[in-house]
Amino acid sequence: MNSIKNGFFLCMIFLLWCHVDSGVSIDPFSHSHSLNTECVMKPPRSSETKGLLQFSRSVEDDSDEEWKIDGSGSIREMTQRIQLHEGNIYSFSAWVKLREGNNKKVGVVFRTENGRFVHGGEVRAKKRCWTLLKGGIVPDVSGSVDIFFESDDKEAKISASDVSLKQFSKQEWKLKQDQLIEKIRKSKVRFEVTYQNKTAVKGAVISIEQTKPSFLLGCAMNFRILQSEGYRNWFASRFKITSFTNEMKWYTTEKERGHENYTAADSMLKFAEENGILVRGHTVLWDDPLMQPTWVPKIEDPNDLMNVTLNRINSVMTRYKGKLTGWDVVNENVHWDYFEKMLGANASSSFYNLAFKLDPDVTMFVNEYNTIENRVEVTATPVKVKEKMEEILAYPGNMNIKGAIGAQGHFRPTQPNLAYMRSALDTLGSLGLPIWLTEVDMPKCPNQEVYIEEILREAYSHPAVKGIIIFAGPEVSGFDKLTLADKYFNNTATGDVIDKLLKEWQQSSEIPKIFMTDSENDEEEVSLLHGHYNVNVSHPWMKNMSTSFSLEVTKEMGQRQVVRVVINA
Q1: Are 384 and 334 in contact (CB under 8 A)?
Q2: pTM as predicted
Q3: 248: three-class secondary structure by DSSP
């Protein structure tokens, strides 16, 4: 069966009957393979045996037992349908390779009963070696689906092996998330308090207070924060990182050529600095032709356009050097290519190069939408975003850039596809660079607070994700999608979710005191979220014995860390 959908060739119908439960499967939460896109000669065998819908075949090269998919889309007699159930999460995995051609995209697509195509995940496949394809679907209604492999080359000849579809209830999925969070966001810290002769100080009391979490859940702000004291108080009491929606953009700071105005951005930055709020820069340039200052598209001379563009980069980068945590240097340069069309194919890469020279310590993002959201259009897929960052870093002089991936996260008002989102983060994370969700929002809809919590927890439970910024605020802010509080600053249901996660993802101020004994017991060990802490050691009977120090708990220190405190007495 041949079909073209959104520029992809659907190479085969491949469906599994619903009572198979055997063979090898890939755990979607296992990162032993997910953060490594290396092509292997023989897929590693998983120790897991529980898989819902599954076929397993030999992976020897040229074996007749491989599923061989030719350009006609046929795959022997395997043209069955699967029944999916609303409320469950279905995780897909398969090892794929090309028998002809090389370096082609291969993905999985689910076709629902009403003919809608849901893209479930993709990889860049190679010839004669195997790459792991992961993805999945979260159906918003129960019903049957057909599963296809797809490729951007209709002549692609694909082989697949160890194809699996696993079913999770939402409770099972969350349990997996929670287990990962304990592993990647926390470490156990054991304290040993001794005298100089190494004998234990019995009765010592250790008090711990977090001063700064490693993982930040932040919120964007706009110029209205300068007009409302209530908005400022509401914001400063919650968030420690932000970005400005429009106030740093070129079309705001230079509405007329040669007349720059940074008043709003400077005032907002001042408010942030006074309240200990970090700021992420958004954006130096924007590759969308419709998002330029009105006078820029009127420039016909490429040399003149290059001059004003370089002036913009120099102006904004030098003004805020050392004051920001990161920059979207060329926003959405996978979806759009205004500067590439006007100034040459390497325009984006050269602009990152100049930005790096102006502020070498700042993190520089490729920032894109519809990358983790699983929209119908497939312009900025995880594979393409990854390749764009690789292209930028390969440009002469860019190898030492502190690169990062910004996944905007503008989700539709419906059940998010968490299985796809996890596979997308896996692909982006294979670069080894930090990922931030930078503009998370969702139009108002029933269950918005449930969906937003699922999205944020999915990101928080992924090891490559280092922070999140939501596009939200109280009613006075004008954020009409994620409205977190009404005009009296009373929380909405979604606002309650955000406050709950802020509290959960920051170490509680009520960390139980540790009372030291001379025996090895659990009371001397505490599980701490990664971050910075103040630690005080005192003794109820020794009034002069008190010492305080700073402690940073990081994932690099492993799952357990021993802190030794020596008392001079």
Answers
A1: yes
A2: 0.90
A3: coil
Cβ neighbours of residue 522 under 8 Å, at least 6 residues apart?
A: none
How far apart are the C-alpha atoms of 477 and 554, rounded to whole Å?
A: 35
Catalytic residues: 332, 439
Q: Which helix (H) or strand (E) covers residue 328, if one does?
A: strand 326-331
Matching residue, tokens 């699967």: 82
Cα–Cα–Cα angle for 63, 64, 67, rounded to 5 degrees: 95
Whether 85 contacts 174, CB under 8 Å: no
φ/ψ bin of 283: left (φ > 0), alpha (ψ from -120 to 50), beta (otherwise) = beta
Confidence band, pLDDT 50/70/90 cuts, at residue 68: low
- CB-count exposure of residue 400 (10 Å: 0-12, 13-18, 19+): exposed
pLDDT(63) > 50: no
At 151 the pLDDT is 84
For residue 524, the model assigns a pLDDT of 72
Tokens of 549: 């120090």
3-state secondary structure of 289: helix
- DSSP states of 465-508: EEEEEE-EEEGGGT--SEEEE-TT--B-HHHHHHHHHHHHTS--
CB atoms within 10 A of CB 160: 26
**Through-space distance between the first and last CA atoms of the chain, rounded to whole angstroms:** 82
Nearest C-alpha neighbor of 305 from the set 345, 263, 259, 340:
340
The H or E element spanning position 273 is helix 263-274
Calculate what percentage of the chain has a pLDDT beyond 70.
85
d(CA 504, CA 453): 12
At 124, which amino acid appears?
R
Note the pLDDT tens digit of each residue in 157-212.
Answer: 888 888 888 999 999 999 999 999 999 999 999 988 888 888 888 888 899 999 99
In order of 92, 244, 436, the CA distances from 409 in angstroms are: 22, 16, 10
